Amino acid sequence: MSPKVFVSHASEDKDRFVLRFSERLRQNGIDAWLDKWEMLPGDSLVDKIFEEGIKEARAIIIVLSKFSVEKPWVREELNAAFVKRINNGSKLIPIVIDDCEVPEALKSTLWESITDLSAYDSSFDRVVASIYGANDKPPIGHPPEYVQSFAQSIGELNNIDSLVLRLSCEEVLNTKDVFVDPEHIFFKDGKPIVPEEELIDSLEILDNSGYIDFLRLLSGGVPSYQITTLGLTYTQKQLFPTITVRLKR
Questions:
Q1: Which residues span the domain enclosing 99?
Q2: In terms of domains, do 8 and 116 share one?
Q3: Backbone phi and psi for residue 96, each to the nearest 5 degrees, phi listed first
Q4: End-to-end distance of the chain based on CA atoms, in angstroms?
Q5: Which of 36, 75, 108, 209 is the most exposed place for a label (fewest CB within 10 A)?
Q6: Lowest mean pLDDT across 15-19, 52-56, 57-61
Q7: CA gap 56, 177 in Å, rounded
């Protein structure tokens, strides 16, 4: 069913803004409740506005202007809207169309300000999105490849440092050589599978911990490095307890 929305406003604002705004809401699948369309001679104001209009609305739009902020009737509708929001979780959407004092009760609610009553497409779209509960937040994609490779952490090392040390030791076990060329394991099609800055930071930490030994390059880039006996032994004990390897130097 189309979401029902009650539009609270002052009569002075009907022709200059509210009527066209409500028509646009209905054109976008929103059942805008407006007194002009809903009330006939002999109807009870209280029953129509508070029982049929506000009570059944998914959202209440409060049009704030230099006229409406002075209207006791609009304040009564605002009070009812607050009670409904507290009891039912309905949405309260203030729209400010004049330079006027926003009621204290609404100052903690994000409002939409419209300065040009003849051109307000972007504001209208935001109100419609709010009513439908939609947003333009991009969808969540897949995590980077190196994050998907996170597995068991090694000792006190974090995930990235553990990954760098584990892949380095796996390379050593495969090549039987303690010297590691990072181009072989951390780059794919010329692009780093681990962000280069993160990789260099991890190598610094592993070097300071005694797990690897490498020379810093003045020209930048990721240098080759050597797995120390401590690094290989420590990693083997945690991840490869059944493997013994002899290294060539």
A1: 4-132
A2: yes
A3: -100, 120
A4: 75
A5: 108
A6: 52-56
A7: 74
For residue 247, pLDDT over 50 is answered with no
The total of structural domains in the chain comes to 2
Nearest-angstrom CA–CA distance, 41 and 191: 74
Q: What is the SS3 assignment for 86?
A: helix
Q: Where are the beta strands (DSSP E) in 34-90?
A: 59-64
Residue of higher predicted confidence among 194 and 143: 194
SS3 240: coil
Q: What are phi and psi of 173, to 5 degrees?
A: -65, -30
Separation of alpha carbons 97 and 117, rounded Å:
7
**Contact (CB, 8 A) for 18 and 7:** yes
Out of 97, 132, 167, a domain closes at 132
The candidate with the shortest Cα–Cα distance to 193, out of 145, 231, 156, is 145
